[in-house]
Amino acid sequence: MSIYKVPTGILDLMESIRNKFFNGAVGKESKITWVPWKKVIAAKENGGLGMSSYWALNRALLCKWIWRFLNRDNSLWYRIIVAINGSNHHELICKYNGSRSTWLEILNEVHCLKLKGIEIMDHCKKRVGNGEQTSFWNDLWIGDQVLRFKYPRLYALENNKSVTVADKMAADIESSFRRRVRSGVEGDQLTNMRDILESCSLSSQVDRWYWDFNGDGEFMFKDVRNLLDEAVLPHDVDPTRWVKYIPIKINIFAWKVSLDRIPSKINLLKRGVSMEYNLCSVCHEDIEDTSHIIFKCEMASNIHQKICRWWQIDFYHVSSYAEWLSWFKDIRLPSKKKLMLEGVFHISWWQIWNFRNQILFGSSIPRRSTVFDDIVSRSFMYVSSRCKKNFSLTDWMSNPSAIAL
């Protein structure tokens, strides 16, 4: 995947395999897809799980070869490309001619990305030193636009359209024009360009390319991959809430709770799964949807109340994830402790769901009295193993909000 463009059909097959694995399907087994796969692989900032797409992975790896070529690493492959196609990077990268070769296929893919509105080359900019390796008109080296596009009337007058910054700045700007600049649009463009160039001074250092996505200017594969995913994957207004103190599987379950995408009886009925009994398996008092089993059920409400008493915060009865989130955001705690508390709630949802599943599918009826104790012990195990500060189980059980972090 690092040098060849992977066909779309192969990428779709790979995504399908990954989707089935995520849903728990084995072999040719088919299971319900609770969340659209494109949403799953979207960035956490956009409401997904940040898994990224294979399409973005493949295309970002191809773009890395463009960066290597721009930086002229003098390796064997670079010398071969230059020997066959020439050393003018602008002509090579920006004027793909449709020929077939591995290198030209990479250029073609960059061109295809441009047609989709993804301008990879706009983020590759020149940091000018002595100006000897920078094209005055064709490289993005000053301002936010290539000069030949910013000043098209002046570019039309240029005799040497591949002139370097060093040669252009060594003499008067108009010296390489085929005629004198006229008043009007040409004169305005010349005045504007002179004003911009006044701030430019050359040095003895060699020109180099820099990547404008990060402060150090180094090309980062992750930046390109995120850029590509951002262009093709869905965006959600609310980012995914992620707690670093608890396991990934519990974070994913909490994410599904927030989306109402767990296999409750009502959700199964909506997807055509027949149910003889759709009441809550724990309390048998109301229909079993996500809000009921996680928040409104008597057992869930009691656990919520015990957690509040344990953490010494005011209890508030919630009946949905939206109400819980609104209530939770108003809790005043230091950020680290608040994140731990959020992790405790996520663990409680996980334990409530497991308790429900044991009732339905277990060989024996579980004891309700042990659920809260399991939440306390599991949360201590998860948080203490992921927290830099050491604290005892006794401190965690007595008052976790008072632990010094």
Describe this structure in words.
The protein has 405 residues and is mostly helical. The protein has 3 domains: 1-120 and 219-240, no CATH class; 129-206; 248-402, no CATH class. The protein is built from 19 helices and 2 strands. Strands 1-2 form a two-stranded antiparallel sheet. The longest helix is centred in the last third of the chain and has 27 residues, at 335-361. The model has no long low-confidence stretch (mean pLDDT 89). InterPro entries: RVT-Znf (IPR026960).
How would the blueprint of this fold be written?
Elements: H1 8-23, H2 37-41, H3 54-70, H4 76-85, H5 89-94, H6 102-115, E1 124-127, H7 147-150, H8 152-157, H9 165-170, H10 185-197, E2 208-211, H11 221-232, H12 248-259, H13 265-270, H14 290-296, H15 298-311, H16 321-329, H17 335-361, H18 371-386, H19 393-398
Antiparallel strand pairs: 1-2
What is the subunit organization of this protein? single chain
Question: How many structural domains in the coordinates?
Answer: 3
Number of strands: 2
Shape: elongated
Structural class: mainly alpha
Question: What string, H for helix and E for strand, traces the elements in order?
Answer: HHHHHHEHHHHEHHHHHHHHH
Low-confidence regions: none
The main β sheet shows up as: 2 strands, antiparallel
- Secondary structure tally, helices: 19
Radius of gyration: 30 Å
User: Which strand-content bin applies to the residues?
Assistant: under 5%
Distance between the termini: 44 Å
Mean pLDDT: 89
GO molecular function: RNA-directed DNA polymerase activity
Protein name: RNA-directed DNA polymerase, eukaryota, Reverse transcriptase zinc-binding domain protein
Keywords: Nucleotidyltransferase, RNA-directed DNA polymerase, Transferase
Domain Reverse transcriptase zinc-binding: 239-302
